[in-house]
Design brief:
The protein is about 45% helix and about 15% strand. Helix 4 packs across helix 6 and helix 9 runs antiparallel to helix 10. The longest helix has 28 residues. The protein has 17 helices and 13 strands. Helix 12 links the parallel strand 7 and strand 8. The protein binds iron/sulfur cluster (SF4). The site of iron/sulfur cluster has 11 residues, from helix 14.
Length: about 475
């Protein structure tokens, strides 16, 4: 068999690299005693080579182990069945694969193929292995709860009118926050108060319906809200998958699909870090993604380059704190380079700001004094401060029509912290180093996604649940790195 395998065949590389890896983290999952088992190193080789050759199903791997010379050579003629392969993938690899991935990157580092000092980061939404039409929407739950609260309030008020003395001891009912217990208690009180009273047939029917359905419905909503967490939706067939807008929209109807947000960092088209997120918003993924990076290499990168999807004040603050050189664009970075933008004297970003006097000067030269601050919070809870400046007298100004449309004297808002960050980022991005990173980013990280999704045809995860999907992402990353090295 040895003679039949070509000298430079990728299977030899997989065999060689996995042989050099310390599999102690994997061995920890095996207890002594019991029946003999297939060696985890051999199973890992089979899985990595499967992902490298676009064989993702454990049944297909089982078949390949009986008929594909490369798989047979790699497994030394061992023939684990699909259950063994699937169990190894989803259970034994769960805490160990990230360390295995880290060791593969370290081998690439030793050979000078990658750098972990400067990284290019991007994300893609990969479809989950879940039904596209069995969804739970957070908004629908909120609306249903509000409807129940409103109807309960109406029933309560009706009871108050009809049986005022029975409800005199009661504290005024507040149905803003309702749950199963509260609703059951309230309905019982209403029943008690209305006993023997001439209640209309419609109300009787409503009460019967409420008694039978509302408590169980609210208990169900509470369970669903616990699964949702801070997400807006989930899939019933993979509750950890969130509905996201995908780029490949073949039906052209903007349909949301259950998916995971896969973030990677690359260097020379090799993946050096990966993380999976249940949130579609790239901005919120940067910090946890870099945390994974730190866990892998016990240090953070020296420089990071990413697209405008990551450019937020919170991320800029974080990168500054961690002393990471920041080549991350912000919204409008390209727009504000345009002549039209630069020459528009009415744009609040183009108004002259005097830091010493903390005053903005409007296009007519009128000083705009600071009138206060507006505080806001992002969806991740990050606090932002916008300083507000107002012109003293806009009435009768010849530029009034072109300047702004609102009533009263013009108010402009400036986020000084973000302006400071933007200034720094602008300098970085337009420097010689920045231009190099900007031109390299698309072919470095975006091409990696292209290789996996288009060339390798991996467009949907095979496994369900965040933890198992993370294992698949890790196997894909290792396979991609080895395929790249072999090429
Ligand atoms: S409208 Fe008000 S803010 Fe605008 S240019 Fe005239 S004085 Fe200045």
């Amino acid at each position: 068999m040895e003679e039949l395998i070509e000298e430079n065949h990728p299977v030899r590389l997989v065999n060689d690299v996995i042989d050099r890896i310390n599999v102690d983290p994997l061995l920890k999952h095996y207890k002594p005693g019991g029946t003999s088992v297939y060696h985890p190193r051999m199973l890992l080789k089979v899985l990595v080579y499967g992902y490298l050759t676009n064989i993702y199903s454990s049944r297909k791997m089982e078949a390949a182990l009986k008929e594909n010379i490369h798989f047979m050579w790699l497994s030394a003629m061992n023939k684990p069945d699909h259950n063994t392969i699937a169990r190894f993938r989803s259970e034994r690899l769960k805490d160990a694969l990230r360390q295995v991935f880290g060791q593969v990157v370290e081998l690439l580092l030793e050979e000078g193929l990658v750098s972990i000092k400067t990284i290019y980061t991007d994300g893609t939404k990969l479809e989950a292995n879940a039904n596209r039409y069995t969804f739970v929407w957070g908004k629908a739950i909120k609306t249903s709860k509000e409807r129940i609260a409103k109807q309960l309030d109406e029933l309560w008020k009706y009871t108050q009118q009809l049986a005022e003395e029975e409800l005199t001891d009661e504290v005024p009912a507040d149905f803003k926050e309702i749950d199963s217990k509260k609703v059951s208690r309230t309905i019982a009180k209403i029943d008690q108060a209305l006993e023997g009273k001439p209640v209309s047939k419609k109300v009787k029917q409503k009460l019967n319906y409420a008694r039978r359905n509302w408590p169980s419905k609210l208990a169900e909503y509470a369970e669903k809200e616990a699964v949702l967490g801070s997400r807006s939706s989930y899939s019933k067939t993979d509750p950890q998958a969130t509905f996201m807008r995908m780029k490949d929209d073949h039906m052209l109807n903007g349909q949301l699909k259950p998916a995971y947000n896969w973030q990677i960092s690359t260097s020379n088209q090799f993946i050096v870090n990966y993380s999976l997120h249940q949130n579609a918003n790239d901005t919120l993924t940067l910090k946890p993604h870099l945390q994974h990076y730190h866990d892998l290499y016990q240090a953070l990168p020296e420089a990071i380059c990413a697209d405008a999807g990551y450019g937020s004040e919170e991320n800029y603050d974080y990168l500054e704190e961690e002393k990471i050189d920041n080549y991350i664009k912000y919204n409008y970075f390209h727009k504000e380079q345009s002549k039209k933008w630069k020459e528009d004297p009415f744009k609040s970003q183009n108004l002259y700001y005097n830091q010493e006097k903390d005053t903005v000067y409007c296009p007519m030269g009128q000083p705009m004094k600071r009138i206060g601050d507006r505080k806001s919070k992002t969806s991740s809870g990050y606090a932002q401060t916008y300083a507000q400046y107002q012109a003293i007298h806009c009435e009768g100004c010849p530029l009034r029509g072109a300047c702004y449309k609102a009533k009263g004297n013009r108010i402009v808002e400036l986020n000084h912290n973000l302006r400071r960050h933007k200034q720094k980022v602008r300098e970085n991005l337009t420097s010689a180093q920045g231009l190099l990173h900007r031109s390299k980013r698309p072919w470095d990280v975006e091409a990696t996604f292209g290789a996996i999704k288009h060339n390798r045809g991996f467009r949907r995860f095979m496994l369900k649940g965040l933890q198992k999907v993370e294992i698949e992402a890790g196997l894909l990353a290792i396979a991609h790195n080895l395929a790249k090295k072999a090429a």
